[in-house]
């Protein structure tokens, strides 16, 4: 009976739960779904991470290659993110060129990397003006159930923590790069940006970590990216219903709490991963 | 209806492959008497040692998609769903040899999960011939060595071969032993898949309260 009601009147169905301040799956409005992270599972990638946020599953693989540094910044490397939402993750996506959602997500991740300065691009430079690293961060969504931006940011951060770059020296005589695969070092991750997404219902109610259905029924969405010092890295509110300043403040304090939760999880995983 | 399966067969072939088949009507190409099977193969850019620039649409992906379609057309009972389309998407996250076999095994589980009627499980394995020995389930290093390789997709109950593909030259005297190695390995996969499916069904029925 509940299933029938849900199909016919999805919004009413959700409203009944929201009035009781909870999600249909029993979560409170401010509670996130179970988050799990697995680092370093893909051995062919230089760094990888798999993040599950409830049913939403996202995998990030990082490959490092050589490139000539940009002419206007000869002492910097590149970080190139790309988010892929293939047809297998959801019925909504059909095969073909990257859809709007994937492009928006890719741009969002690029903005987060740029604004939060996760890594100093100068760290990626091997020889100024001649050679630098380019990190291709490919994020693939394996299962889409809402809140893709949070999962992608988390996966990216975890994968970057996992990346090990070999030492490269430029041979003075030949001018060629010599890669020492035996000596690898981790990247210097300077900040840990964590994204928190909200959905707006009926122009008033804010819920955290929306599922796919909730996103579909929501009248607006908001994503806040915070780093550990409480600095705002990115605020993404693509149209939708308006929010008052006070509500925005609530969201930001929730984002700060979420950051602590995520950071704790990350630290545990990294500790278990690094050789003792 | 949708089915999803992901498996990391570290024992057999470390290629992690999740996907989803679905039934939909595709007016223009609909066949009047049976379902259309459509397979798309995509491998992640970080799946191989060298970064792959085109995850899908290149020749190898198209060929793989076609082979998967041919394999599954042999196994799925398409007559039961006329004028519909069954989409099978396969995504390879890490490739270390035997990708075709891993794709077929994962696809079998996902098609079963989706509830699409099949004649039998489709179990696949690769095999090769090195130093007068037949080897089953080649890794990437072994494949790159350049010896003869065989990919076999088997319907275990009847012992029928759904797909058999061979590369490089192999003397006909050796074919028997290589085929036998691949078939034996495929049957082992079948035992594993069967066990997993039964376990899953048991758990699901417990949750439903049967």
Question: Key features?
Answer:
heterodimer; A: 276 residues; alpha+beta; six-stranded mixed beta sheet; four-stranded antiparallel beta sheet; 6 helices; 32% strand; B: 210 residues; Ribosomal Protein S5, domain 2; three-stranded mixed beta sheet; 4 helices; 22% strand; globular; disordered N terminus; RNase_PH (chain B); RNA-binding (chain B); Exosome complex component RRP41 (chain B)
Question: Layout of SSEs?
Answer:
The complex is a heterodimer of chains A (276) and B (210).
Chain A: H1 2-8, H2 10-19, E1 35-39, E2 47-53, E3 56-67, E4 78-84, H3 100-116, E5 125-127, E6 131-143, H4 148-162, E7 164-170, E8 177-186, E9 194-201, E10 205-208, H5 212-217, E11 220-226, E12 232-236, H6 245-273
Parallel strand pairs in A: 4-6
Antiparallel strand pairs in A: 1-2, 2-3, 3-6, 5-6, 7-8, 9-10, 9-11, 11-12
Helix pairs in contact in A: 1-2, 3-4
Chain B: E1 22-24, E2 36-43, H1 59-75, E3 85-92, H2 99-114, E4 123-130, E5 133-136, H3 140-144, E6 149-155, E7 160-167, H4 172-208
Parallel strand pairs in B: 2-3
Antiparallel strand pairs in B: 1-3, 4-5, 4-6, 6-7
Q: How does this structure look, described?
A:
The complex is a heterodimer of chains A (276) and B (210). Chain A is of the alpha+beta class. Helix content of chain A is 30%, strand content 32%. In chain A, helix 1 crosses helix 2 and helix 3 crosses helix 4. Chain A is elongated and about 75 Å long. The N and C termini of chain A lie far apart (55 Å). Chain B is α+β, with helices and mostly antiparallel strands and 210 residues long. Chain B has a single domain, classed as 2-Layer Sandwich (Ribosomal Protein S5, domain 2), CATH 3.30.230. Chain B contains 4 helices and 7 strands, in the order E-E-H-E-H-E-E-H-E-E-H. In chain B, the strands form 2 sheets. A 4-stranded antiparallel β-sheet of chain B has the order 5-4-6-7, with helices on both faces. Chain B has a 3-stranded mixed β-sheet with strand order 1-3-2. The radius of gyration of chain B is 17 Å and the shape is globular. The two termini of chain B are 22 Å apart. The interface between A and B is medium-sized, with 23 and 29 residues.
């Amino acid at each position: 009976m509940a299933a029938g009601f849900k199909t016919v009147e999805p919004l009413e169905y959700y409203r009944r739960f929201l009035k009781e301040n909870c999600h249909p799956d029993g979560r409170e409005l401010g509670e996130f779904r179970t988050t799990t992270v697995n680092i370093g599972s893909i051995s062919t990638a230089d760094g990888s991470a798999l993040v599950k946020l409830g049913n939403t599953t996202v995998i990030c693989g990082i490959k490092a290659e050589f490139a000539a540094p940009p002419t206007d910044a000869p002492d910097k490397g590149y970080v190139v993110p790309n988010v892929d939402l293939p047809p297998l993750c959801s019925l909504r996506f059909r095969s073909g060129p990257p859809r709007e959602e994937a492009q928006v997500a890719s741009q969002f991740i690029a903005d987060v990397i740029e604004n939060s300065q996760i890594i100093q691009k100068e760290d990626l430079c091997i020889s100024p003006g001649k050679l630098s690293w380019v990190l291709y961060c490919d994020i693939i969504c394996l299962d889409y159930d809402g809140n893709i931006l949070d999962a992608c940011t988390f996966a990216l951060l975890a994968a970057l923590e996992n990346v090990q770059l070999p030492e490269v020296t430029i041979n003075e005589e030949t001018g060629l790069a010599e890669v020492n695969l035996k000596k690898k070092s981790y990247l210097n991750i300077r900040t840990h940006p964590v994204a928190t997404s909200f959905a707006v219902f009926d122009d008033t109610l804010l819920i955290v970590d929306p599922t796919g259905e909730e996103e579909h029924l929501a009248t607006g969405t908001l994503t806040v990216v915070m780093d550990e010092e409480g600095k705002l890295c990115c605020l993404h509110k693509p149209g939708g219903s308006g929010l008052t300043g006070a509500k925005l403040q609530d969201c930001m304090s929730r984002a700060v709490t979420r950051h602590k939760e995520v950071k704790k999880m990350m630290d545990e995983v990294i500790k278990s991963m690094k050789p003792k | 209806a949708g089915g999803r399966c992901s498996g990391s067969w570290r024992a057999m072939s470390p290629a992690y492959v999740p996907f989803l088949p679905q039934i939909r009507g595709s007016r223009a190409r609909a066949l009047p008497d049976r379902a259309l099977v459509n397979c798309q193969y995509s491998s992640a850019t970080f799946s191989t040692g060298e970064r792959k620039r085109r995850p899908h649409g290149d020749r190898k992906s198209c060929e793989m998609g076609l082979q998967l379609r041919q394999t599954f057309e042999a196994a799925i009972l398409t007559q039961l769903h006329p004028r519909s389309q069954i989409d099978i998407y396969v995504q390879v996250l890490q490739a270390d040899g035997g990708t075709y076999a891993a794709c077929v095994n994962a696809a079998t589980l996902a098609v079963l999960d989706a509830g699409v009627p099949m004649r039998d499980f489709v179990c696949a394995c690769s095999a090769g011939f090195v130093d007068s020995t037949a080897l089953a389930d080649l890794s990437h290093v072994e494949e790159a060595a350049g010896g003869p390789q065989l990919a076999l997709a088997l319907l275990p109950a009847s012992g029928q071969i759904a797909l058999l593909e061979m590369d490089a030259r192999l003397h006909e005297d050796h074919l028997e032993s290589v085929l036998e190695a691949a078939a034996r390995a495929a049957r082992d996969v079948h035992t594993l898949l069967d066990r997993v499916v039964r376990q899953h069904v048991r758990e699901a029925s417990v949750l439903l309260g049967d």
